[in-house]
Amino acid sequence: MTAENTAYSEAVRAVRAGELDADTAADQLIARMTEKEILGLLDGDSPRRLLPLIPFLLGRRPFVAGAVRRLGFPGIRFSDGARGVVIGASTAFPVTMARAATWNPSLEEEVGLAIGVETRARDANYSASVCVNLLRHPAWGRAQECYGENPVLTGRMGSAMTTGLRENVMACVKHFALNSMENQRFEVDVSVDDHALHEVYLPHFKAVVDAGADSVMTAYNRVRGEHMDVNGALLTEVLRNEWGFSGFVTSDWVFGTHHAVASLQAGMDVEMPLRLLRARELPNALRSGELARATVLRSAHRVLRTIVLQEATREQASPSADLVASPVHRALARRVAAESIVLLKNEPIGAEPLLPLDPGIRHLAVVGRLATLPNLGDHGSSRVRPPSTVSPLQGLREALPGVRITTPSGSSARAAASVAAAADTAIVVVGLDQHDEGESVVTGSVEVGVLGRAFSAGPLRAPITWLAHLASRFVRGGDRSSLDLRPSDVELIQAVVAANPRTIVVLIGGSAILTEAWRQRVPALLLAWYGGMEGGHALASVLTGEAEPGGRLPFVVPTDVSHLPPFDSAAKSVVYDDRWGQRLLDAEGHTAAFPFGFGLGYTTIEHRLIDHRFDDAGGSAEVLVTNTGDREGSTVVQLYAGDVSLDRPVAQLLGFQKVTVQPHSEAVVTVALDAGPTRQRDPETHTWSPRPGDWAVLAAQHSPSSWEGSRRLRRPEAAEGTQAG
């Protein structure tokens, strides 16, 4: 080895030993690079001819950007995925939305640690697993990749994922910003006022940046007329100047860079993942003076500094490949899946609720097209291919070896009803799959000019664009066309419950599914998400009572789609305000089918706010939690604030804490409170102050419909002990 090809490893050693800081180490590496190598830090290393192969290569190896092999610098070695590593046969965890339903940041940090270990074991050093875009509407095709509709829950869970990942790899948060529709993600322009932008759609991004995120990925969409790669107002003025972010910014892939020079000047450091616009245009722009050398060096420094610092501070021992999809990680996937399952309904049939299943059950019917499928979620960039999966039917058969379990011989509702009629209890497994929702990998709304001059104005542009539009009509995934189940699923539910009143419905999906057409007839209802490779085992453990349903909704389920904001999957422009989800239902006086934060357990638990302390930096609350039932159980203590001077107060989640309580016992739980939802930002001075109003605080088990029993939210100048009506 020579001093030249060990330059990077020596820089890492020096930073680890405290002999150099990361900034100095980065500058020393830049001083040893040629101009071509420095410019090479600013885009992907793969040639553009690999574009059609990206879906295949993404699952086989890391995508590399900025490597300088002469100096031993590995560059950015990218792996997706939000539910596990997309390279090779890796652990498939439940999708992000399912993990949000655990309301358990400590558990999410464990998942982040496991994903980071497997990412590094696959020879990658950078994971784009932190997706914190808000669920503005459940029809969004990639809803399953986010943490739900609430900024505080999203910020806490995304920060936990970031912390876990960073033990082994760089953590990338995406998609910055206001990305929450799929079919028109390349073209849509989002209009938003300062209040909604800074107080609703950005706080969770800031929380993840504050948690140490190494990188930010820009979104495809426009915000206020500008594509995000050239949006200096957000990339520089907010992200760097206001928040102090010191890592590097990458583009979303291929079509996320619209101008080679302007994107660099705006603060987007790396074009991913191919040599496209920047490889063609930056050398000439630098020579002509259009691009300042200082701008190039600024982004090169960010990339080098971040990678040197991450390797110098991460866990030093390289993880063994044996940890990938290991028994330990499979067990974690199963635990997360069980804790994510939300029990929405559990009415008595006779003397007892239908769940958990009667230990004396002898004959169980399991029906539905999703009962036997390895249904892990969409087949886009976050797809994970585990070495094995467990379906709901397999999980039940393994959990109930002495029980006769029958399935219909055909797929008709009539055949299912016949099987159900002969059984003690029937389980119907229905919902969504990758055909109903997910990433729209092929779309007609794509700017093919990034592929070269022949595509931007030459003879290839028209046929390529036409082919993209044609293919987009047949590709799976994308935004949902309806929030209802498929008609065949509704027919199946109605037929089975008519044949056997002891019917349990299990819903599979990535966000809200409307239930009004049939839920009143069904005694037991669960939401089991895309539960990962161990989802079938987890579901069986909850149904049998081995585990309790620990999930709570990370979004509201309305009774009517009209109670949600309008959603046009073909829109080229949209307006985002501060009213969506539970907030919109609160403001307009609509009752939810299942409110935000809702979920039942197998015991009865009560909450009572004892005391709280609160100021502009946040605070804490003490809540007495009492398990009045005969079984150990968990609950999520949720603290909400609302301006009770309004006719219809809009509940704002301030904090939450999951706790397990023994039967007939009580515990005092301390909940950290986030002041952000009660504060406002001055658009001129960028300073924050308390929002006007008569604010009250309430401890609850889900978003409240009444503020009876709430207390005045005490700021330092407020009176002690007063009650809010």
Rough shape?
A: globular
Low-confidence stretches: 718-725
What structural category characterises the helix and strand content? alpha/beta
The CATH top-level class label of the largest domain: Alpha Beta
How would you sum up this structure, described in words?
The chain is an alpha/beta fold and 725 residues long. The chain folds into 4 domains: 7-323, Alpha-Beta Barrel (TIM Barrel), CATH 3.20.20.300; 340-438 and 479-551, Rossmann fold, CATH 3.40.50.1700; 441-474, no CATH class; 603-712, Sandwich (Immunoglobulin-like), CATH 2.60.40. 29% of the residues lie in helices and 20% in strands. The chain has 21 helices and 29 strands. A 6-stranded mixed beta sheet has the order 2-3-4-5-7-10. A 6-stranded mixed beta sheet has the order 12-19-18-17-15-16, with helices on both faces. Helix 15 (392-399) links the parallel strand 15 (363-367) and strand 16 (404-406). The longest helix has 21 residues, at 293-313. It is globular and about 80 Å long.
Short description:
This protein has 725 residues and is α/β, with parallel strands linked by helices. A hairpin with a 2-residue loop joins strand 8 (222-223) and strand 9.
Please give the structural blueprint.
Blueprint: H1 7-16, H2 22-31, H3 35-40, E1 46-47, H4 54-57, E2 63-65, E3 76-79, H5 96-100, H6 105-121, E4 126-131, H7 151-165, E5 170-176, E6 189-192, H8 194-201, H9 203-210, E7 215-218, E8 222-223, E9 226-227, H10 232-242, E10 248-250, H11 260-266, E11 274-275, H12 277-288, H13 293-313, H14 327-340, E12 342-346, E13 348-349, E14 352-353, E15 363-367, H15 392-399, E16 404-406, H16 413-421, E17 425-431, H17 453-456, H18 461-472, H19 487-499, E18 503-508, E19 524-527, H20 535-544, E20 573-576, H21 581-588, E21 605-615, E22 618-627, E23 633-643, E24 652-661, E25 665-673, E26 679-681, E27 688-690, E28 695-700, E29 711-712
Parallel strand pairs: 1-11, 3-4, 4-5, 5-7, 6-8, 6-20, 7-10, 15-16, 15-17, 17-18, 18-19
Antiparallel strand pairs: 2-3, 8-9, 12-19, 13-14, 21-22, 22-25, 23-24, 23-28, 26-27, 28-29
Helix pairs in contact: 1-2, 1-13, 2-13, 6-7, 6-14, 7-9, 14-20, 15-20, 16-19
